[in-house]
């Protein structure tokens, strides 16, 4: 994957005089930084060469930037462990923009024809609409646009461009999935540590800053691991549960099936200790989507026979209510009895009255935390959206919400069309899992802003391009071709 980068690095190593000069300059700079800034200067001295080396490698190979961005998406949640004003979110955006720059610097190796793609057109159209929102006269503070536009459209556009033109291989896809599952497993272990052993001082401080109101309910901690909050963590664990359970059904080897069963149980209980009820709908929507995509009557029957008893138990009995996590999951299926859900409906009624004469919304950056920061007296900042779609509705109006939902429908519809044409069994199994998970997260976003939060948004941006361009890797294994040729030979004889 990185042969070209390694070759260039070897060529650089041959120029020893250059490294000697750089070493002297770094030593002088390091001494000045330590003398003037103490420990901070020492950290800068160590971090600067490493940072420059990473930047150089990203510029040489866009795939390195892609992997760096994915890993940073998971590391972002660790910001609560360090008391620093460093803008980590902007640093991540810098890595993504740097990767995009690398794509242009390596233009000759890129396949630019792939940009002529229906899904890319949908993403670009949504991007153009959000840019036009800069002209929205209702927005009280124009610079706030930049804070929400990243999550609304910019990052998806950057990632779609990179994923489409970069020559990604099957091995690259395997690596991306492995990184996702490894980080998810580590996150699950940390959540169990929070739940059953205890919290770190920095986590206790984070809760004391007001987050205990949503993360400690009736004396029960909602584990959040090293994610931004429990809702985001719960969504990730539900996604990992869905992916691993599908892989269990699809794998043939006994040891692999045992491994996926183990991971499914780990991730499901991690989801349970998050106390995120809405994340249950990742499974409620994702699992039937997988059965539908599979188009196997026998498998659909087995899937229904497994899922139906569980839903009946959750809906019509009180078994397990003594366990808080099970009780919390059960309440997700009874929204009419949930006070917080009823409050959300009341808020939406108020917003409907405000927005009836604002088809283009109140302007991007006017709601949620950004709105409270820059325009606290604006109506959009005074009513919590409590939903990704409601947030889009507030800021871009009914026109923007319609366009956004059409973009999601285009991605899902085109993804279904493409995965049903796959001939490679391994690729088919993986792509239907990614598509089913995308559908599950899309449904969950009615209650949470998951599509705008790291690391889920990063994986969804990547997955949306993988399953809608899956024909790029659709090569039938040689053993299947040989088996087919042998059968045809027998028929002819």
TrEMBL record:
UniProt keywords, alphabetically: Ligase, Membrane, Transmembrane, Transmembrane helix
TM region positions: 12-34, 40-59, 66-82, 88-107, 119-135, 147-168, 175-192, 230-249, 261-287, 299-320, 392-414, 426-446
GO molecular function, one term: ligase activity
Keyword Chloroplast: no
Record protein name field: O-antigen ligase family protein
Any Pfam family matching the protein: Wzy_C
GO CC annotations on file: membrane
Localization: Membrane
Bilayer topology term: Multi-pass membrane protein
Main localization, broad class: membrane
InterPro entries registered for this protein in UniProt: O-antigen_ligase-rel_domated (IPR007016), WaaL-like (IPR051533)
Residue span(s) of domain O-antigen ligase-related: 263-405
PANTHER family the UniProt entry points to: LIPOPOLYSACCHARIDE BIOSYNTHESIS PROTEIN PA4999-RELATED (PTHR37422:SF13), TEICHURONIC ACID BIOSYNTHESIS PROTEIN TUAE (PTHR37422)
């Amino acid at each position: 994957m990185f042969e070209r980068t390694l070759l260039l690095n070897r060529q650089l190593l041959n120029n020893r005089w250059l490294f000697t000069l750089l070493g002297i300059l770094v030593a002088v700079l390091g001494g000045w930084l330590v003398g003037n800034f103490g420990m901070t200067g020492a950290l800068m001295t160590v971090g600067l060469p490493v940072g420059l080396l990473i930047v150089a490698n990203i510029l040489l190979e866009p795939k390195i930037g892609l992997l760096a961005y994915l890993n940073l998406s998971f590391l972002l949640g660790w910001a609560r462990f360090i008391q620093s004003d460093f803008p980590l979110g902007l640093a991540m955006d810098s890595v993504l923009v740097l990767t995009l720059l690398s794509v242009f610097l390596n233009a000759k190796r890129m396949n630019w024809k792939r940009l002529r793609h229906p899904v890319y057109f949908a993403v670009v159209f949504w991007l153009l609409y959000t840019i036009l929102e800069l002209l929205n006269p209702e927005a009280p503070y124009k610079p706030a646009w930049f804070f929400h536009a990243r999550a609304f459209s910019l990052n998806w556009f950057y990632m779609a461009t990179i994923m489409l033109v970069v020559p990604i291989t099957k091995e690259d896809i395997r690596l991306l999935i492995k990184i996702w599952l490894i980080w998810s497993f580590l996150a699950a272990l940390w959540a169990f540590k929070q739940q059953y052993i205890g919290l770190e001082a920095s986590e206790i401080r984070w809760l004391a800053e007001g987050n205990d109101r949503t993360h400690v309910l009736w004396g029960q901690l909602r584990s959040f691991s090293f994610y931004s909050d429990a809702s985001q963590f719960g969504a990730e664990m539900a996604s990992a549960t869905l992916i691993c359970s599908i892989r269990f059904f699809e794998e043939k080897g006994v040891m692999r099936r045992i491994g996926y069963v183990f991971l499914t149980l780990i991730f499901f209980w991690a989801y349970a200790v998050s106390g995120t009820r809405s994340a249950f709908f990742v499974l409620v929507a994702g699992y039937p989507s997988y059965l539908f995509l599979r188009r196997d009557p026998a498998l659909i029957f087995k899937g229904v026979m497994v899922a139906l008893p569980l839903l009946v138990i959750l809906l019509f009995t009180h078994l397990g209510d003594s366990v808080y996590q099970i009780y919390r999951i059960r309440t997700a299926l009874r929204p009419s009895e949930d006070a917080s859900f009823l409050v959300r409906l009341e808020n939406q009624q108020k917003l409907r009255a405000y927005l009836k004469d604002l088809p283009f919304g109140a302007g991007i950056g006017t709601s949620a935390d950004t709105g409270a920061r820059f325009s606290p007296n604006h109506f959009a900042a005074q009513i919590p959206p409590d939903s990704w779609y409601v947030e889009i509705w507030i800021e871009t109006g009914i026109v923007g919400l319609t366009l956004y939902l059409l973009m999601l429908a285009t991605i899902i519809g085109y993804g279904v069309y493409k995965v049903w044409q796959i001939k490679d069994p391994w690729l088919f199994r993986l792509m239907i899992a990614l598509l089913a998970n995308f559908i599950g997260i899309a449904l969950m976003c009615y209650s949470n802003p998951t599509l705008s939060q790291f690391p889920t948004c990063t994986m969804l941006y990547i997955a949306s391009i993988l399953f809608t361009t899956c024909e790029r890797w659709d090569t039938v294994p040689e053993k299947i071709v040989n088996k087919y040729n042998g059968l045809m030979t027998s028929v002819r004889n």
